[in-house]
């Protein structure tokens, strides 16, 4: 490249370690759900992911602070983050697609409607409804109740929407050189994210203890925990990233016109917020 050089990062072992840690966590989760044990495998995988994230962040920060990145690398990072968020969009689209398929096709077919209404011969007495409180087959017990969308889910929606606003203010403050304002708004954003996770934990307790919403409560319980659980995992990762951005901000790392690490964290957090709006509408309200 004329006028300079293009920095090629050294080969990194962290993607491989991150994949192994994620695989261990998911294998542990699968064993736990099927056989009732494996929580320690899942826990080790989760801890390993946190360690890998910390060490990976450390290396990238060192390279950035060492002045190794140029405009071309900045474009590479932006494209990479864009494709990563696109892959996350597809990830959640698969689960939203499952919810759509079940509600629009599978349940009406089992009730005798549509092109495959012959499926009603399996359970002649089944009546389709959503939320599915009485699943077909006596071996599956449906939930006893459903969460009121205008209570805890609405509170969590307000938390995340407000956190997007405060994060935007923090970003604009950083671009304007107002580091104290950016730091304070980022702290508020992080607090709101933690509050979201605490409220969701309480909601899960209520679902299990009082509403009978479990992974064994038919398709409603399965889709509920798949969608909200994976979203909660993404909020957790986003909160960890925001915490690292807060630490970097405290260390004086970012500049007004050179802070893509902060910007990428903001992209990710806004994506997580948009996904929650979809969850609130299609899992809780409609």
Automatic annotation (TrEMBL):
The UniProt keywords, alphabetically, are: Membrane, Translocase, Transmembrane, Transmembrane helix
Its protein name is cytochrome-c oxidase
Which CDD domains has this protein been placed in? Cyt_c_Oxidase_III
The major lineage groups are: Bacteria, Pseudomonadati, Pseudomonadota, Gammaproteobacteria, Oceanospirillales
Family to which this protein belongs: Belongs to the cytochrome c oxidase subunit 3 family.
Transmembrane portions of the chain? 14-34, 40-58, 79-102, 150-170, 182-202, 222-247, 267-285
Looking up InterPro entries in the UniProt record yields: Cyt_c/ubiquinol_Oxase_su3, Cyt_c_oxase_su3_dom, Cyt_c_oxidase-like_su3, Cyt_c_oxidase_su3-like_sf, Cyt_c_oxidase_su3_a-hlx
- Topology in the lipid bilayer: Multi-pass membrane protein
Entry EC number(s): 7.1.1.9
- Species for this entry: Modicisalibacter muralis
Q: Where in the cell is it found?
A: Cell membrane; Membrane
């Amino acid at each position: 490249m004329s006028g300079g050089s293009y920095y090629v990062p050294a080969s990194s072992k962290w993607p491989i370690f991150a994949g192994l840690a994620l695989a261990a966590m998911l294998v542990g989760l699968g064993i736990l759900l099927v056989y009732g044990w494996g929580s320690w495998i899942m826990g080790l995988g989760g801890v390993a992911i946190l360690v890998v994230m910390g060490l990976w962040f450390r290396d990238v920060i060192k390279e950035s602070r060492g002045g190794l990145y140029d405009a071309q690398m900045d474009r590479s990072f932006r494209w990479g983050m864009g494709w990563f968020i696109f892959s996350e969009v597809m990830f959640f689209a698969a689960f939203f697609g499952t919810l759509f398929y079940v509600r629009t096709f599978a349940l009406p077919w089992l009730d005798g409607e549509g092109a495959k209404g012959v499926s009603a011969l399996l359970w002649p007495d089944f009546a389709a409804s959503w939320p599915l409180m009485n699943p077909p087959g006596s071996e599956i017990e449906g939930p006893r109740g459903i969460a009121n969308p205008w209570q805890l889910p609405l509170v969590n929606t307000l938390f995340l929407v407000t956190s997007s606003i405060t994060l935007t203010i923090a970003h604009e403050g950083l671009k304007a050189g107002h580091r104290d304002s950016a730091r304070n708004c980022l702290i508020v954003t992080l607090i709101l994210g933690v509050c979201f996770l605490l409220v969701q934990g309480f909601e899960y307790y209520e679902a299990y203890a009082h509403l009978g919403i479990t992974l064994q409560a038919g398709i409603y319980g399965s889709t509920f925990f798949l969608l909200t659980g994976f979203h909660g995992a993404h909020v957790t990762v986003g909160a960890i990233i925001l915490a690292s951005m807060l630490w970097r901000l405290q260390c004086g790392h970012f500049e007004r016109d050179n802070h893509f690490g902060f910007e990428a964290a903001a992209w990710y957090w806004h994506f997580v917020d948009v996904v929650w709006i979809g969850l609130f509408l299609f899992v809780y309200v409609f």
